[in-house]
Amino acid sequence: MGWGRGTDIVDPATGAPQPDQSELDLRLSYEPHRGRLQGLRVEVDYIDLHQIDAGPSDNLRQFRAIVNYSVPLL
């Protein structure tokens, strides 16, 4: 889990002020080490980026699900 907040942001190229931001990142992982599901890894990520005093289209919400399965070859 991570949370961050940025204030008084300035664009280095133009010197123009940018909107304040807050971001929340959550990650849940499941990886059994024994049994029939050994080799499976499931990750679920949620990201919420909010730009304060910006239009609603500048906000970002993402949900990701990643599933990996390692097949033993030997």
- β-strand amount: over 45%
> Which blocks of ≥5 consecutive residues have pLDDT under 50?
none
Count of helical regions: 0
Total strand segments: 4
**Strands of the largest sheet, in order across it?**
1-2-3-4
Task: Specify the overall morphology.
Answer: elongated
Determine the fraction of residues in helical runs and give it as a percent range: under 10%
The succession of helices and strands, N to C, reads EEEE
Structural domain count = 1
Our Rg estimate from Cα atoms comes to 19 Å
Describe the sheet with the most strands. 4 strands, antiparallel
Mean pLDDT: 89
Pairing-aware structural class of the strands and helices? mainly beta
Distance between the termini: 36 Å
Please describe what this structure looks like.
By secondary structure, this protein is mainly beta. The chain has one domain (2-69). 0% of the residues lie in helices and 50% in strands. It has strands at residues 2-6, 21-30, 40-51, 60-69. It has a four-stranded antiparallel β-sheet with strand order 1-2-3-4, with no helix packed on it. The protein is elongated.
List keywords for this structure.
single chain, 74 residues, mainly beta, elongated
SSE blueprint and pairings:
Layout: E1 2-6, E2 21-30, E3 40-51, E4 60-69
Antiparallel strand pairs: 1-2, 2-3, 3-4
